[in-house]
Amino acid sequence: MSAARTPASGAPAAVGLVVAGLVCQEGGAAIAVTLFPHVGALGMVMLRLAFSALILLAVARPRLRGHGANAWRDVIVFGVVLGTMNGLFYLALQRLPLGVTVTIEVLGPLALSIIAGRRRSSWLWAGVALIGVVALAGGGWDRLDLLGVLCALGAAASWAIYILASARVGAAFPRLDGLAIAMAIGAVVSLPFGIVQAGAALLRPEMLALGAAVALLSSTLPYAFELIALRRLPAAAFAILMSLAPAVAALAGWALLGQHLAWLEIVGIVLVIAASIGAVRAAGRRVRDAVEPIG
């Protein structure tokens, strides 16, 4: 019978899609880092959001009529959070290794899972995550740029808000309509900052082409893969797989950017991944509504 009737039957392929999405996402982030000297972090944010919005608007063709004031308020907040999250993430990437940045960013959803868990074991995983964060410094916080850490923590908080906002928008807008509209709003918010920072580089065709490639790798393909995978995987299993993002990011940083991590930083990444998986399992059924993306 079809995979739609027995989700477990397509689980191996779904796992492959989630992993492929993570590879695309972190590979796109690595490419974005190489463009920072040309367009700046905020210029890269603008390019990613603008091209992602164009792709999503073309695919979703969202209906703008028939939505109440509350729905529009929610999607505007979602779009602003989306732009803020991407901006802070790329600003952190300017100052921190990719693996470290993603590990700190994952603390946002991790905190949400711990709160949703409402069990004593959830706080145990919070302690494990805290040890992991301390280990990320590689034995001393002077190894990490303070502003970069603050930007990554801001991205983590934004990601937690993004998860909550996406649930509200997903309930108010059908299919990908809400995401497409929010992405367009995020692109508009990032526009003045990106233009000021990137300047004349935006007139270079190769920069536009690479910006489109980052948007495709970091947004369009991962979203598509995740939507397909969620039809075949339980949301909790999907959340556990997404917890592997820091490890994939560290590998992408090493392979594509030549970023080497100290052994304590690697231990920190492993501990945060373990805490994420443990918190998702502790949250049980409650976490499913919190972590499942819209669509």
Protein architecture, described:
This protein is mostly helical. Helix content is 79%, strand content 0%. The chain is built from 12 helices and no strands. It has helices at residues 11-60, 69-93, 98-105, 107-117, 120-136, 146-172, 177-198, 205-230, 235-242, 245-257, 263-283, 286-291. The longest helix has 50 residues, at 11-60. The relative contact order is 0.23. The model is unreliable at 1-8 and 285-295 (pLDDT under 50).
Listing every helix as H and every strand as E from the N terminus to the C terminus, the arrangement reads: HHHHHHHHHHHH
Number of helices: 12
Cα separation of the termini: 24 Å
Beta-strand content: under 5%
C-alpha Rg, in Å? 19 Å
List the helices and strands and how they pair.
Layout: H1 11-60, H2 69-93, H3 98-105, H4 107-117, H5 120-136, H6 146-172, H7 177-198, H8 205-230, H9 235-242, H10 245-257, H11 263-283, H12 286-291
Give keywords.
295 residues; mainly alpha; 12 helices; 79% helix; globular; disordered N terminus; disordered C terminus
